[in-house]
Amino acid sequence: MKNQKSNQIKETPTLKALAPKQIDEEKASKTLRVCVTGAAGQIGYSFIPLLCNGAVFGTNTKIQLRLLDVPSAIKTLEGVVLELQDCAYPLVEEIKFGDNPREMFVGCDVVVFIGGFPRKQGMERKELLTINGGIFHDQGKALDEVAKKTVKCLVVANPANTNCLILQKHAPSIPKENFTCLTRLDQNRAVAQIALKTDAAVTDVKNVIIWGNHSATQYPDVNHAKVRNESVRNIINDDVYLNLDFISKVQKRGAEIIQVRGGSSVFSAANAIKDHLRDWYFGTKEGSFVSMGVVSDGSYGVPEGLVFSYPVTCEDFSYKIVQGLSLDPFSTEKIRITTQELVEERNEALVIEAELE
Questions:
Q1: Residue 357: what pLDDT?
Q2: Which of 47, 52, 89, 217 could cross-link to 270 by cystine, CB 3.0-4.6 Å?
Q3: Contact 104, 68 (CB under 8 A)
Q4: Which backbone phi and psi does 100 adopt, to 5 degrees?
Q5: CA-to-CA separations, 124 to 117, 119, 258, 311, 330, in angstroms, rounded
Q6: 226 has which bridge partners?
Q7: Per residue in 117-159, pLDDT tens?
Q8: Are 182 and 273 in contact (CB under 8 A)?
């Protein structure tokens, strides 16, 4: 996804002529220009239909779609566009695709950063940070130059927290509150485990928190969670399970899926992107909060400026970190561990950045 100069930019015909008449039955009240990076990959392939059918921003919001990927993936990306044309989505006003972020980010309202360099077996963290640091350094500068100053950003590519930090650092004209990273997949995994354990519907479970890094140090916290408005700890009544097995299950779920499926999470990740954006855009339910990686303001002792997963409430495409939650010594230590990992990642990334410059 590095910014490689290229004239490759493709514009497809609008689909107005193909759109069914039922779009007139529900007049579109807004248009959003949305860019998806890594759009030729598996997660992008699973997410883009959710975006185009109204599952993310609703059925009264039209989409101007921008799809970005590396030059070597353009042929595959063109195939994705052909399929999108064949879907004849009523909400899709136009589709453009290419390999230059300075072209694809122009005037964007939302950018979903799925594209990045994946960690391979035997790869050291420094190597991963070096490669992705270059990608998000360049994309941050492009974002700063050509996107709307109100653009909302969601970073999915790992290491998501630190990639988001680098992106935000290189787009200083855009408010830091507009940068988030994905920990909703971890939250969804945690909610599902609690629902299975209590024989409840997932809709009965609320306020499970993911603190910290989207990594194996994340802290899935149920101390404020409820099932049918009753405390999860009271219902399960098994601290050994909740403090050990449950946490480990959620932390290692991604690795478990790779081992069983032979590949990483795809449609569950796409679904989590949808959930993150939808709640951010439409708002959270009264009395409920969700987990998002956001730029820390110092809440709960986390160093200011780190991109850290917090419990948040959302309204009108903005969020607020939930304040005043009690933390027992166990939780405090778990948050300290994941914070320390993020501090180390940040420091290492900043050293690499200094060397590159």
A1: 67
A2: 47
A3: yes
A4: -115, 115
A5: 13, 8, 19, 30, 30
A6: 206, 231
A7: 876 666 667 788 888 888 999 999 999 999 999 999 999 999 9
A8: yes
In-domain check, residue 15: yes
Q: Would residue 214 show up in a list of annotated catalytic residues for this protein? A: yes
Residue 135 · residue 117 · CB < 8 Å: yes
**Active-site residue, selected from the candidate residues 137, 170, 214, 276:** 214
Tally of domains in the chain = 2
Whole-prediction pTM value? Answer: 0.91
142, 160, 180 - which closes a domain: 180
Per-residue tokens: 13: 């015909």
The answer to whether residue 272 is domain-embedded is yes
Which helix (H) or strand (E) segment holds residue 20: the answer is none
Which residues constitute the domain of residue 243?
A: 184-343
d(CA 175, CA 248): 35
Please report the DSSP string for 300-357 in residue order.
GGPPTT-EEEEEEEEETTEEEE-------HHHHHHHHHHHHHHHHHHHHHHHHHHHH-
Distances (CA, A) of 249 to 176, 190, 253, 333: 32, 8, 6, 19
Least confident of 106-115, 210-219, 343-352: 343-352
Residue 337: inside a domain:
yes
- Give Cβ neighbours of residue 321 (< 8 Å, ≥ 6 apart): 294, 297, 299, 310, 311, 312
The answer on 164 and 197 residing in a single domain is no
Integer-rounded Cα Rg, in Å, for the chain is: 20
What is the Cα–Cα distance from 171 to 179, expressed in whole angstroms?
A: 10
CATH number where 232 lies: 3.90.110.10
- The answer to whether the beta carbons of residues 166 and 176 sit under 8 Å apart is no
Can you give the pLDDT at residue 139?
97
